[in-house]
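Protocol step 4 of 5: obtain the predicted structure for the target chain.
Materials: sequence only (see below). No template structures provided, no constraints applied. The aim of this step is simply to have a reference model before the mutagenesis design in step 5. Sequence pasted as it appears in the construct record:
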Amino acid sequence: IKTTLSEEEASVMEVLVKALGIEDRLLFDATLLKQSLLAPHSSLTSSSSSLSSPSRKQSSSLLPVDLVIHEHQHAKGLMSVKQLREGVIAYKQRLLEKGRYSKVAVVLALQDAIERVEMTLKKQKEEEAKATGKLSESIRVDHDQGGGGDDEGGDGHEGKSFDATSKTGKEIWGKWEQPDATKFQVRGKGYLKNRVKVKSEEFLFPLQHVEFLKVEGKEPLDHVCKHPGSWWEANKPGKDDFGLVFNIQVTSIGISAVMYHILPGGFAALDKECPRVAKMLKELAETDDKIKLDEAFKFIPRVVTGPFIVRCAVKETPVIMGKKVVQKYFSSDRYLEVDVHVDSSYAANAIIKLAHAYSVNIEVDMVWLLEAKKEEHLPERVLAGARLSNVNFAKVDRKVQVLKNI
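Step 4 output (structure tokens):
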């Protein structure tokens, strides 16, 4: 096979073989594999009927990804599909880390093929379950209907488990952690009349990860949760969890600082902990009204330590960011992403450039909440927050490319 395929195609082949554990018992034709790799939009020729009664004659008409799963589904069950998918995702991550973006399309094509096979197998199992009057408990693929592509759980991903404890991290570029929520003043009960602020209760969404991405080109990196090189792509939460993702885009220096906050149990847990905020956030996650979204998210910066000139420039004053800079919003049943393009404001960009010059000596808190404009929404409570310490932008080594139509 290695003499037939290119180096990259052979590497993909090795991933598939390792994922399925079939070693040298390859039952498909290398030429056919190469053709499907070079034609990523080829449609699958398999169907529920062809999968139900395997034979060599039927196998010869299938594309390679179909064929591997087709020949081994009875021996290894649907776990082989899951292993195959995870192997391809791991290989895609290695490609992105090496900056070999031209090859990513090949791997995305394989993922797409696997997703369609999973859907075919799941549909077949469901039909069999209906026919026998039994629930299809043996299906191990958790594929969100209506998702498709590489969206939330749309690749059959069952989800990574997260707990309600916030995380801390030390990266090559600096450190991150969740700050103390009680250090921030928010609108208290009766604020609309008495204008009294109070200390916030704890964050509703625990901080799970922060990543700095070096973005190639002059365009901002939008919808990072859909980018194949993002942390979210490799660590999607379970279907019952929900994530708040804030993507701070600084195109002038080619950086996206992305903060991932994930609440185990999602809106059910949020409704139990703080019903008023749960209702507000759920409405925002489901709306297409950009004006409403722009007016909802309040940002509070706080310089914990840093030079006097930076502390003077960055005041601990709440600001509705959507009224100051351009923001974009992307949502699904598992996350709400807010992309903040700070370069779109001259004032904000000037502050960022100043902070950039002293970043290795700065410790800053970035906190988000929903502004309460009605009495029933009070008191306010901080949603999510991150503390970034001693950030060295020169050491950001995760390079990503803005991909269209992902």
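Step 4 remarks: The radius of gyration is 24 Å. The first strand starts at residue 169 and ends at 171.
Proceed to step 5.
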